[in-house]
């Protein structure tokens, strides 16, 4: 199958007087991860001119479960050709158009074609200017008959209306397991959208990972998310919540109480919580330390670059290992800490923890002075 595909592709390129893409031509090597007769194709330096030859070869038969067209220069014309191919394809399970020049209109056409496609499970449109109309088209796609399980629409200029639409349709969606809407440009109005996502989490029973990084979320937004996840009890399957690069301080009492209720609950399913790049400082770190002492679900915690100093870092370290000899948290495996301000006291608290947990730092001693370096 691979050999016939490559022959069809080379013939199509010759007919169009094109140079074959290095990524496609290299499919016989490391680009193709063989699993039986199925693999992954990653193209490079692709433009709309190159797409017809590729789709012609793909339609004649191919061995690819995953097609990655990210970081190219595809626009509406190329996407239209690809949409025609995907409309009848029954093998591709993961498709990426991330970081291209795809317009909102092209995304609307693609989403219309993908309705009824029961093969595709992963779709990445991140880094394209979907805008409000494109975001609404994606929300409409999630309401149709399909088998999408992972959707990435990060940095897509989604507006509040399209974010609310995504949250609304996910209240009834029973397939999607991962949603990435990080770096949304609707940050000034994000609290409104966050309230809709929190209500969605109360009733959604399939979503396992949600990425709301760099969305302008403040303590109120975290409070809403935590409250509704707590109310969901065993109905929620959310295990990964990514909130990097927001404006969370973790000092508002209602927010602290809601997060504490969630993470101390026996029904909490969260295993990965990323808070890196927020502004916890020592005050928020002290609150988080108290919460961690009562948690029994997290396996990974990210508090890197949170403006924490010695007091906060020591509090979190002691919450995890009160005796500096053994980890009392039942499941924690890794903690990200780099980007905070370590002094000798903080280094001494975390040094013995390095032998038990996976950290992104190392503690070094030079002339009796302890320093923290990135691993």
From TrEMBL:
<dbReference type="InterPro" id="IPR001611">
    <property type="entry name" value="Leu-rich_rpt"/>
</dbReference>
<protein>
    <recommendedName>
        <fullName>Distal membrane arm assembly complex 2-like protein</fullName>
    </recommendedName>
</protein>
<dbReference type="Pfam" id="PF13516">
    <property type="entry name" value="LRR_6"/>
</dbReference>
<dbReference type="InterPro" id="IPR052394">
    <property type="entry name" value="LRR-containing"/>
</dbReference>
<dbReference type="InterPro" id="IPR032675">
    <property type="entry name" value="LRR_dom_sf"/>
</dbReference>
